[in-house]
Structure formats: C-alpha cells, structure tokens
Amino acid sequence: MPRLVEPTAAVHRSFLEAWDELEPEQERWMGARGLWQEWTRQELEDPGEFAAMVEAIKAEARPDTEIPPDLVHQTMLWYVEGDQWLGRLSIRHTLTPVLHELGGHIGYNVRPSAQRKGYATRMLTESLTWAARLGIDTALVTCDVDNLPSRRVIESAGGELEDERHGKLRFWVPTHVS
C-alpha cells in the first residue's frame, strides 16, 4: 500500500525513472532542489548527490534552518510503495502573500505512469494529518481553473471553494477530522 514518507534514498532509481517520464517543462515537478541548490537529472545519477538532495529537502522542514526571506519552511513528502516513487507533496508551513494568492499550503504531483489511480486523492487526504501537526488548522490548496481532476481531488478531501484569483481556484481544506 503506498504511503507518504519523508524523502529517502531508497527510491533513487525509481525517482530517476519518474523524472524520465516528464516533458522538459515539467521537470520542476520533481522538486529536485534545496534552499541553496538545484540538481539536474544527470547530477542525481550519483547516489551521493541524490543523498545530498534528500538531506537538503528534509532540512527545509526544520524550523532552525535559515531560509531566504521570500521562502517559507516546507515539509516535502514522497508517496512511495516499497522502492517505487509515485509522487511528491509539499506542505508549506506558512503563507507568503504570493502563496496566499496562488500556491497555498499544499501542492502535489503524481508521476505520469501512476496517474488516474486515486493517488493524488490519497496523498492530499493523508497529508492533512501532517499539516495539522504543523499547526495548520485549515489548509489553502489551489488548482488551475481548468484542472478538473485536481479540483475533484481537493473537493473529495473536504475542500470548500473560496474564490478564483489569477486563473487559480482557491479551496480551504480542514486538517482536523471531527
């Protein structure tokens, strides 16, 4: 059964295979960057570089990690089954004005070969517990106006539409189940 976990070097091969499924303009979906460095697909072939990226991503969640003033701490989680990397999800601990307008607290992506299997819905639903532990009572989650699958994912997790801004639908999703 797939589950959300902290990034791990155990999915190295599968992470790279997922990257190979993407079009060049989609590479940012992989989240192959830390606060101070971004890795290329070629660099991550090296297991040591991959391990360094994993540690850099984990560091972004720690409150004692210094971050640039325009960024926020975030917890990135990977959706994995065994050694298979299926997707990623980021929980931003706070919102900047830009995140409040466009990005929200939670963003997620599922690798192309794993789409249409209900993983995004399970990822978002499972992440709400993590968000609650971070002190987020209601999470802002956004999607493009024309992204009906993502809208369904957000609504199935309890998202209530607030409005549309700049081509994005903005939903508030409770993180505590009553």
UniProtKB/TrEMBL annotation:
<dbReference type="InterPro" id="IPR000182">
    <property type="entry name" value="GNAT_dom"/>
</dbReference>
<keyword id="KW-0808">Transferase</keyword>
<dbReference type="InterPro" id="IPR016181">
    <property type="entry name" value="Acyl_CoA_acyltransferase"/>
</dbReference>
<dbReference type="Pfam" id="PF13302">
    <property type="entry name" value="Acetyltransf_3"/>
</dbReference>
<dbReference type="GO" id="GO:0016747">
    <property type="term" value="F:acyltransferase activity, transferring groups other than amino-acyl groups"/>
</dbReference>
<protein>
    <submittedName>
        <fullName>GNAT family N-acetyltransferase</fullName>
    </submittedName>
</protein>
<feature type="domain" description="N-acetyltransferase">
    <location>
        <begin position="40"/>
        <end position="178"/>
    </location>
</feature>
